Amino acid sequence: MSKTRERIPKLVDNNTGIELPVSSWWRKLCEVIPRVYVSGDLHPHGNQAEKQLAEWRTEGITHIFDCREEWDDSEIVKRHAPEIRYFDIGTHDHGGRQEFDWFDHGTELMEEALLDPESKILIHCHMGVNRAPSMAFALSLRLGHGIKEGLQAIRSARPIAAILYADHALVWHGMKQGWSGKRVERGLREVLDWHTSNKIDLRWVISRIRSVEKDPA
To answer: Within 10 Å of residue 115's Cβ, how many Cβ atoms?
Structure first.
C-alpha cells in the first residue's frame, strides 16, 4: 500500500472497537474549523437520510450548504429537519476551473450565517472530497486563516479531503484582497508545496467510495 494511502486513518466503531474502511469517512461529519463542518451528502435511502439528519441536528447544525449541481435535498431537509436552513450553491466537479462567483456567493452566505454565535454550518458535496473542502478552504481564507493553516486544518479533520480546487480558491481570495500578481504567485506556490508534501491518492479514495456506493443499503 502506498504511503499516501497509509496516511488516511481508519475509523473505529465506538461500540465494537472494529476498524471501519476508509469509505466510512464519506458521510462522517468533520469539523474543519470552529463551527464549520464538511461531509458527504445525504444517503439516497429515506430512512438512512433521516438518520443522518438526526445526527446533524444532534451536532447542532443550523445551516446546510450543498455544493452539488447534480442533486437537490431541499425537500427532504424541509420535511425532516425544517429548522435547518438549506442553501443550494451547486457547482460541477469536472476538475476544471471553478468560477470566482461560486466562491463569492458561497462564502458570503456562510459568513453571514456565522455571525450568529450559536450557528454551525455544514458544507457538503457528494463525497466531501473536492468541492466542499475547497469551499471550506475559501471560507477559511475569508475568515483570516493562513493558507497552509487552512489546508492542514481541513486535511487533519477529514483525511479524505483532496481539496482539488484550492488553487482556484487562492486566486479568488487574492483578487478579492487586491493582491499583486507576485503575491498571488507566492500563494499558489504555497498551495502547491502543501499538496506536494501532503499527497493523497485521489483515485483510490474515490474508488473506495464508489465500491460502497454501488450497494447503498
So the answer is: 7
Beta-ladder partners of 36? 33, 121
Q: Is residue 107 part of a domain?
A: yes
- The confidence band for 212, taking pLDDT boundaries of 50, 70 and 90, is confident
**Predicted local confidence at residue 28, as pLDDT:** 94
Domain assignment present for 168: yes
Q: Are 163 and 155 in contact (CB under 8 A)?
A: yes
Mean pLDDT of the chain: 92
Q: Residue 190 burial (CB < 10 Å; 0-12/13-18/19+)?
A: middle
Which of 9 and 107 is assigned the larger pLDDT?
107
Residue 41, C-alpha cell as written in the block: 451528502
DSSP 50: H
In a domain, 57, yes or no: yes
CATH number for the domain harbouring residue 128: 3.90.190.10
In the structure grid, which three cell numbers stand for residue 34, read together?
Answer: 470552529
Mean pLDDT of 154-182: 97
Report the number of distinct structural domains present in the chain.
1
pTM beyond 0.70 = yes
Residue 202's Cβ-count burial label (10 Å; 0-12, 13-18, 19+) is middle
Number of other CB atoms surrounding residue 100 within 10 Å: 16
Residue position matching grid coordinates 437520510? 49
- CA dihedral (56, 40, 153, 86) positive or negative: negative
Taking residues 1-21, report their average pLDDT: 60
